[in-house]
Amino acid sequence: MSILSAEWTALLYLAAAVCFILALKGLSSPRTARRGNLIGAAGATLAVITVFLSAKLDNIPLILLAIAVGSAIAAPISRRVQMTQMPQLVALFNGVGGGAAALVAMLELGHSEGPWVLVAVVFTMLVGAVSFAGSAITVAKLQELITTRPVVFPGMKWVMTLAVVAALVIGGVVVATGSIGWALLLLVLGLAVGLLLVLPVGGADVPIVISLLNAFTGLAVAASGVVLDNVLLVVAGTLVGASGTILTRAMASAMGRGVSGIMFGAFRGGSTAGSTTQSDRPVRSSNPEDVAVMLAYAQRVVIVPGYGLAVAQGQHTIAELATTLEARGVDVAFAIHPVAGRMPGHMNVLLAEANVPYESLKEMAEVNPEFKNTDVVLVVGANDVVNPAAKTSPGAPIYGMPILEVEEGRQIVFLKRSMRPGFAGIENELLFDPKTTLLFGDAKDSLTKVLGAVNAL
Amino acid sequence: MDPITLLTVIVLTVFVGFEVVSKVSSTLHTPLMSGANAIHGIILIGAIIVAGQLDDPWLIAVALLAVALATANLVGGFVVTDRMLGMFRGRKPAVTSKDTTK
């Protein structure tokens, strides 16, 4: 049915596009962010209603059924997923979006005419498939279903080059012939390129890859808008592509590297320092009571939370410890590395979940000059983001990544499960420093004991 | 849509995207990624248009798969972003009543 005229359809799509821009704009402050997101959701709802009222559609009952199935699967997962698993979920949703775009373009191939539209079909299919396969590998790495180390095999560089060249050639054939058989092959090659692109990326760099693939899906959606002659898809896709690109670059610079270095670093075979296993050098370990005394009689404490804290579900306990110390007159702040956790800003979400007010969360540039005036730096379940190897050992995989300069602190306390190295797989010299004290154990357990000991003082 | 109009739309959108996102604080980078992720779920309308034009049952099945995947992207993206943003709270007024300078 087409109740709406072309003009009304275009106007309603424009309204939806404005809603999406407002959704992103709302994120400039935590106060307006939630309302912005709701505006975005309203825009999406408006767009979906508009498409039903404007296009001549068959199979409407089946389409509604598919929408119901998609919602019934996604909504409960989104409500129940733990905040620690957020990066996997974002990668998953990104992958299915890319997959959907690739399928849409392939189905439109028969209706597409003109070289530019066919180029857009090929682009959407290829980039959508890369995003789908790449996201699948990202999810597997984050869930630790496969190794978090870079996966490389001899000659991978050549296989990758061959796959990309083949994809471009076959893409050209599809543009020239419009053949669905070649298009299927293109889809398969796109998936292969996605796999080969993400497999060699090391665990610590996975957050950047999620953001990059997010931008890819955005571009695929924009290209699908060209295929379907739909302005809303062009605008929404371009918006995500542009914002994803900015975010990816901001994150890469927060880690002190170029995007290409992250994506192709493993091909160059540079990161030999990543192979160190745990050593048996002596460290100074302590007990919860001593740590409690150090914390309670300090002037200023900076807490550096890492992913280990989240895994142990210790964010609520650490929030309580911070409140308790503040009540005793200790100045407490949280120092958050931009890539703490498994995606940028992940740690902020986890601490927000534990009711830590966002004013207490300090960014790296803000907190680094303050470490030398800090009595005790409490590092909980973080490792790579405080590892001085990023500044001192050029062979290390994290070399060049800006770190939280906790080594400047007067005393450093590490809460660690074991001497196992961090996500990047390298050892931290700071653990053997004379001013470092270690408290071994599950982060939440240790924090509960320290909290109990502080309360008993 | 003629190519020049299309190019105009794309170029202006790129600038809007750069402008809007460069103002997002790093505190909100995770919700930003998740929110942008939800927005590209709008490929759903493309999937609906395609699914509504097909006759072959196999192709319809593929199109319906695309509809379901796109819906998961769109619905899941917005729900999870809302859940995350609901957790960000400022200091309680009772604790620091004078903290109005920020």
Question: Would you write up a description of this structure?
Answer:
The complex is a heterodimer of chains A (457) and B (102). Chain A is an alpha/beta fold and 457 residues long. Chain A has two domains: 81-268, no CATH class; 288-456, Rossmann fold (3-Layer(aba) Sandwich). Helix content of chain A is 59%, strand content 7%. Chain A has helices at 6-26, 30-54, 60-80, 86-108, 115-142, 156-177, 180-198, 206-228, 231-254, 259-264, 288-296, 307-311, 315-327, 346-353, 364-367, 389-392, 443-456, and strands at 300-305, 331-336, 361-363, 376-380, 411-416, 436-440. In chain A, strands 3-2-1-4-5-6 form a six-stranded parallel beta sheet. In chain A, helix 1 packs antiparallel against helix 2 (30-54) and helix 6 packs antiparallel against helix 7 (180-198). The radius of gyration of chain A is 25 Å and the shape is globular. The relative contact order of chain A is 0.09. Chain B is mainly α and 102 residues long. Chain B has a domain at 34-87. Chain B contains four helices and no strands. Chain B has helices spanning 3-21, 29-39, 43-51, 57-85. In chain B, helix 3 packs antiparallel against helix 4 (57-85). The radius of gyration of chain B is 20 Å and the shape is flat. The N and C termini of chain B lie far apart (46 Å). At the A-B interface, helix 1, helix 2, helix 3, helix 4 and helix 8 of A face helix 1, helix 2, helix 3 and helix 4 of B. Chain A: It is an enzyme of class 7 (translocase). Chain A: Belongs to the PNT beta subunit family. Chain A: One of its GO terms (cellular component) is plasma membrane. Chain A: InterPro entries: DHS-like_NAD/FAD-binding_dom (IPR029035), NADH_DH_b (IPR012136), PNTB-like (IPR034300).
